[in-house]
Amino acid sequence: MSSLKSNDVDTNPAPDPQAPITRKGFLMSLNTGTPMPIPEQNLFGRCRPVSEFEKLNRVGEGSYGIVYRARDTRSNEIVALKKVRMDQEKDGLPISGLREIMILKQCHHENIVRLREVVVGKSLDSIFLVMDFWEQDLASVLDNMSQPFTESEVKCITLQVLKALKYLHRAL
Questions:
Q1: Does some domain include residue 7?
Q2: Which one of 50, 129, 141, 165 has the largest count of C-beta atoms within 10 Å of its C-beta?
Q3: Where does the sequence pass through the membrane (predicted)?
């Protein structure tokens, strides 16, 4: 039977379960339960900071977040920058946002917008999706139509939607 020596026992007090979770720039040590600072150079992990994008204008807002037209300051390309809505989230990224990221990262199809990368805001509590920017989507075309689509235009749009749907059902 082995005996415990005083230096074998963890003398650090257990963390207070009622204390707020520290997220900004800290990780919790699995050994001691205390916060460990993250070095500045590793703060964003492999994600780029959103500060590397210049927001040009707001183009829309949906149930999952606000979309901006932005310029990537590294490449000078125009992109769509979608801020993932995290209003009600106390436990990090909402499952709907995580699902969207996972699906879009797997998609490579001409009729499905491409997710280029995920970037983070200053506080690590804000996450942005960097996507290809398109001047208009189908919803904005429909909202701004002066006359109905022709039969051939309806066929063309329907074919594009069905091709994307077929791809999603086969690929995922």
A1: no
A2: 129
A3: none
Give the E-state strand segments of 4-135 in sequence order: 26-28, 35-37, 48-49, 53-62, 65-72, 78-84, 115-120, 127-132
The full length of the chain comes to 172
Binding site as annotated, residues:
82
- The answer to whether residues 108 and 165 belong to one domain is no
pLDDT tens-place string over residues 64-108 = 789 999 999 999 999 999 998 776 656 667 777 788 888 999 999
Give bridge partners of residue 83 from the DSSP assignment: 66, 128
Chain-centre distance for alpha carbon 95: 11
In this predicted model, what pLDDT tens digit does every residue of 142-151 receive, in sequence order?
999 999 999 9
Asked if 79 and 57 count as a contact pair (C-beta separation under 8 A), the reply is: no
Q: Name the residue range of residue 123's domain.
A: 48-135
Based on the fold, state whether residues 99 and 145 are members of the same structural domain: no
Are the C-beta atoms of residues 26 and 36 closer than 8 Å to each other?
yes
Question: Which residues on neighbouring strands pair with residue 82, listed in sequence order?
Answer: 67, 129
Binding positions for ATP: 82
